[in-house]
Amino acid sequence: MFSQLATLASGRGAAGLLSALWLITAARTLSPSAFGDLALILAVGSMGGVLSDLGQQTSLAHETAQLGYLDKRLIGAVLRRRLLLSIAAIAFTSALYLSAATNGSFLIPLIYALSILGTAIYSTQIAALTAIGRAQVDGANEVISRMGVLVVGWWWLHNGGGLTGAVAVYALADVVSAVVITLVARKTLVDSDRSVSLTNVSLRKTVHLAFAMTAAIVYARVDIWLLGQLKGSATAGHYAAADRILDAVLLIPAALGSLAIAQTSPLPPSQRWDRTKLLAGLAVLLAALPAAVVAPFAGPIMGWLFGESFRPTAFVLVVLLMSAPFGAVAAACSPVSAVTTRWLFTIVFGAGLLVNIVLNLILIPTFDATGAAEANLASELLLAVLLLASIRHQRHGRERKMTPQVDGD
User: Fold this and answer.
1) What is the pTM of this model?
2) In terms of C-beta density within 10 A (0-12 exposed, 13-18 middle, 19 or more buried), how is residue 31 classed?
């Protein structure tokens, strides 16, 4: 596990650094409202993109981990379904963006539609490759694609590309990733002699994941959209900049989460809880250490990276960093809960999303971006507790079912 984690984390760490450099370039080049609109399209793109998944990716990873190889028929079925679902994702993303953006041009979500389609293709195959231990493909793709975004994006912005150019580089990177990953995955596809059932990746079987993943992604990005709605694109952009630093702190726990299914699905149910506790503890450690290092220097970091206008966002960053250990638990344990607790996972994320939205609506009007950060802290704590409790409950429930009942005399 640790060698795969090191491989994936190093790749994602380098990708995170490149992504941060790109956002710094965008923040310093674009106007505050344009940078806010860029943050909005990325946030609502994440929320809309979940409609192109609906649990398919997680179920595919689970099935592939149990098979031990990439089944051509299984992956093909998931890919076709996700491309059809992407149509709904594009429509939803466009509606959310146009409702909150300063730049209301339909060209922005239209360009981003290519990113949604490309992501549906490459992320499906990367999930399957990671499930059989080939995490290096994910790491390499992250680094190379982010390098492309940085280099092409820097050139485009400095040649007058503006918001349109900034969005276009994301679309270009995701389309290229789709082509390259498809070529890589083709070399490992297997036409199995035995029939592999497609039932477990059908929408009927993944409906619990569909609701849960929708809640999870909306949960992660709804604060930026609500800030755009209630306080404008500029405020959303400042918050998004601080949130990107939190994302960087959570890079390694997120990588751990990507390996969680491969580490737990092949195990007997009785052993999954112990492995999950190990993953959760490791994730907390890997998030708490960098958060503790960054927090004391929040002001200088925001000012130096994104410009002096972002320095007042320092307290927002500190509050977000306080949520890092809880976010790490959620990142590491969500995949395990998704495939083991089924509808309970859906209920957990539904509760987290409801609390998040309510707290944001209460706190943002009075406290602006700080209110969004406080809502995030409270909801991340709740989510971490509920996820661990759900996995533990599932384990004890299975043990009770497996324990023989002895009749009394």
Assistant:
1) 0.70
2) middle
